[in-house]
Amino acid sequence: AAPIDQLVKQVDGLSLDAVKAKFPDTYPDLNIMDLYRAHLSTVLSEVTGVDAALIYPQLGWTSGLEKGDMALPVPALRVKGKKPDELAQEWAAKFPDTDPLFSKPTVSQVHMSFFLKASPLVNAVIPLVHGKGAEYGFNKNDGLKDPKDPSKGQKRIIVEFSSPNIAKPFHAGHLRSTIIGGFLSNLYSGAGWDVIRINYLGDWGKQYGLLALAYEKYGDEEALQKDPINHLFQLYVRINTEMTAEKEELTKRKEAGEDVSALEANSLDEQARRYFKKMTDRDADALAMWKRFRDLSIVRYKDTYARLNIHFDEYSGESQVTEEAMNEVGKLMEEKKICKEDKGAQLIDFSELIPGKEGKRLEKPLVRKRDGTALYLTRDISELLGRHEKYHFDKMIYVVASAQDLHLRQLFKIIELLGFKDIADKCQHINFGLVLGMSTRKGTVKFLDDILRDVADKMHEVMKKNENKYSQIEDPLATADVLGISSVMVQDMSGKRINNYTFNMETMTSFEGDTGPYLQYAHARLNSIRRKAGVSDEELAKADLSLLTETSAINLCRHMAGWPDVVKNTLKTLEPTTVLTYLFKLTHALSSSYDQLQVVGSEPELMKARLALYTAVQTVLANGMRLIGLTPVDRM
Ligand code: ARG
Q1: Which of 106, 328, 481, 499: CA 20 to 30 A from 64?
Q2: Residues contacting ligand 1 via CB (< 6 Å)
Q3: Computed from CA positions of residues 505, 506, 507, 511, in that sequence, does the dihedral angle turn out positive or negative?
Q4: How confident is the model over 576-611, as pLDDT tens digits?
Q5: Per CATH, the architecture of 448-494+504-628 is what?
Q6: Could you report the predicted ipTM of this complex, rounded to two decimals?
């Protein structure tokens, strides 16, 4: 981007490479704030006598533009001899009046606030956004093994998310995992990492023996083909009801003194156990049947994930962990003396292995049942080590509800105790709270498809209220679907992950307040302004940006300049709300700009300049929306 080069040269007389060499991990050609930080550090170094390299990392963000674009907490520079508030006053007074990029700083107690001068900013940031387009904000260098030597390749991250259980409802926990996991995958891939998306299905255990029995008794081939997820679920519910009734009946008779051992030996529970035994013994027929259920379910899941712009590189699952691999792990646990026998079963007593509170907190999980079957935890241990062998990942994230905090803590600790601390250190549990009150309008069974259909119906009703606009939308149902999905996602991502929230169809589908439809509306409106003005890209590139002098225009540019820093910060917080909070600040600034910055009806040069601004804002908004997993709509 030429304007950035010019700015760099104009400022401090440095070349881009010289700035990069002076301040490591700085990319002024991608992130204009890096240039501002570099310049400000250099100027402040003159003023304060502190080394510029020490100032640079202390330049922080502000909580809002009214507090400046950058702030410096004076005590962070550890200058001795004077009180920080006095130093702040003194330095502000010494700050050059003639600085090309910053106005004179303001001081509030021990904080110095810095405001960007409008004209260089406006002239640099709009072309930068236009030039980078869909890439604006994303810095691929983060994912390089060695940022100085790209030939060494990318770092690799596994994001495991969604992970529903076959034949069981796709509950709120899976929904959140899907949304957050999709977002994290986008985030890392935008940052240049090689991302492997894994869906670890719940697809193994005695309950799948029971499901197979149910299919043999009541299965319907046609129904299975047509809607495997629902059919399998119905079978599962039916056979479970039957099994519960049978158990009650047997208990009753036993209590009455009857000998029920013959009945028990042929109970559904027992049959399921035998069927599952066949599966673990790799009986061809049993496995083939189970594999069909799994494959058909995956086909369906894929359709639904596609609606959410999500795909997986691997459908792994509990069934994919082999007995051999688990036996290996078993041996290793014995060697390392971390498990012990307890009434024929194997367990890990953490309080004996780790002193104090931590050991107690980790409790006493079982790793092998008395009958020899492995457990959820055991499978996870093998799966984790297997993934490391297969993918040699640099980092792995598990996106799982906080209800499983203990499980994952146990998992990572066991890996460490097995002698793989290096691997355990690469793993991270990204947890999240509950969704309360989630049910569809037709009932309480919650498959992802039902929820999405329900919300889309609701959005469709809302859209129909504006007949005029409605008639101009090419495919209203498809738009309603996208808007419905946006509603669900934005509501889910609005708070911190760990917070619980209440699923509320009314609020999430409203155009008022910080909702998905509000963001979509902001995007569609920008699109319509551009469409109505009918100015070509070439014309826009020639716009005279110096005409953009209004506060609203400048504030939009300040927001846009901050976007790469927001992405960078999100890589630290791993919170979708970091992005959403930004997007709502941007769209609020946008909404309040329209009165001041009319496009249609302005004289041609001004119109072009404003269009150039709005087109850039649209790009940033769309980039942010895509990052969190939304599909920006052009009309609604
Ligand atoms: N299928 C599990 C459930 O529904 C979630 C799996 C989480 N991932 C894992 N590696 N344990 O509870």
Answers
A1: 499
A2: 160, 163, 165, 200, 202, 380, 398, 400
A3: positive
A4: 999 999 999 999 999 999 999 999 899 999 999 999
A5: Orthogonal Bundle (1.10)
A6: 0.99
